[in-house]
Amino acid sequence: MSIRFENIFKAFGPKKILDGVSFEVKRGQIMFILGKSGMGKSVTLKHIIGVLEPDAGKVFVDQFEVTSLFTEENRQELPKVRQLCGMVFQHPALLDSLTNFENIAFGLRTPQYREKIGRALSEDEIKAIVHEKLALVHLTPEILELAPFEVSYGVQKRISMARTLAPGPQYLLFDEPTTGLDPLSTSSINQLIYELSRSLNVTSIIVSHDMACALSIADSILFLDQGKVLLVGTPREIVQSKIPLVTEFFEETLSLLPPDWCVPWEET
Amino acid sequence: MNLFHELGGACIFFSQVMKTYRKYSGYQEAIIAQIAEVSTRTLSTVIFAGLFVGAILVLQFDTMLRRFDAQSLLGGLNTSSTIREVGPLIISFLLAGKIGAYTTAELANMRVTEQIDAIESLGTDPIQYLIVPRFIAIILSSVVLLAIGLSVSVIGAIFIAQFSGMNFYQYIASIPRFVGGWTLFEGLVRSLIFSAIVATISTFKGFTASGGARGVGKAVTESAIYINVYIVIANFISSFILEWIHDLFFFFLHFAERIFP
Description:
The complex is a heterodimer. Chain A is an alpha/beta fold. In chain A, 37% of the residues lie in helices and 23% in strands. The two termini of chain A are 33 Å apart. In chain A, helix 5 packs across helix 6. By secondary structure, chain B is mostly helical. Chain B has one domain. Chain B is built from eight helices and no strands. The radius of gyration of chain B is 21 Å and the shape is elongated. The chains are: A alpha/beta, B mainly alpha. Chains A and B meet through helix 2 and strand 6 of A and helix 4 of B.
């Protein structure tokens, strides 16, 4: 049970975004995808849920070969993959026309979810799930009847996480979850991702620039550069790597951290 | 070239929307909500514009017909051209600005802020959830709004004709000479075609927008331009085809009358 990329190529017009990307994330792991902007990190995530179709190569999510689901006859299987994966986008991406409650409940009302559990949930059941997920992201029910624009950006991010968690995905995909947040909220969101991944025992793939967070909570780190996989390894392997671009990225990030910061395994 | 390229994209998108519409059911609630939103937002503009369309036409026709002492034809000519041609055209331009721009901006904003991707990632078809209700609502409400706009134009024209010294009864009496079932049919067909253009292009441009706030602006501008250009082209083509069908229809009608007197 894993997510597997086999030699994925993707270009937008003449620009190559992914150039033969291969990797595997095992069930229950937390993987960080690092790299500079425009290196294909978000595009990688969108291939997992089938929002983007690669030009060549294969993507597997559990038993599904996502890349074979773009044909007319297989397309009805695509929602099943999306039921397995939950994605938290760079922006909160909450629907403006719905209340926060309706946003969180959105995935519970879809025909695909009804099909997955074999029946439609009652309003009381939906309410119970919404409240449960809200508690998981450390929010209180007062915000539920408000519109997304009536709460802060940090709260919107948490609501977006609650929405993703509501249908019970097996894989959590985070696309730069801390973008646009202050350092305090960033640290709290990172902590939340770690808690969620461990407590729900789900596989998480996190696209980020946050090297410090990656070194603290990741099981593995994938480093992308110019659409190619530069390095995949444990945090320790990344720190000890002699690849110039990785070292440069690590040192640049380190310079932004407090002087007393050290990699987690050096603390003990 | 771009015009044809966009047209091709819009046609593929249209077929995708139709396929999705046939595949799923249960749109009623969403469609009714959209119709209410579109109609309430646009009704006042259509009534206001419709009133002036009728008034402008009656003044123009009056000036010309006076020269030939043919003012008795004013009511018929004015009503016929309002229903068949000018009314649907001008009111569709207004709908393009009002409904078309709003729909494109709304969808484009949803696209660039990843709301559409989020809907898709939650296992819902965004065409089914976002596009089909808007598409159907735009077509239905546009036809109704056009009908209201045309009625107001005709009423506005009657008022202005009264002011310009025209005999009210003479004006009304000349209408049936020029306006018949075929005129209403032509007006309805044009309204449907123009509404479909507004619905297709506005949703297509919004749905395929990209590139942040700038992308939203670009999508709205292009949507407005393409809708107006396609409406003008469709107006020409529909005039040509409807004229041809009209001639053919009446040819067979006369033919039938001769055989079965």
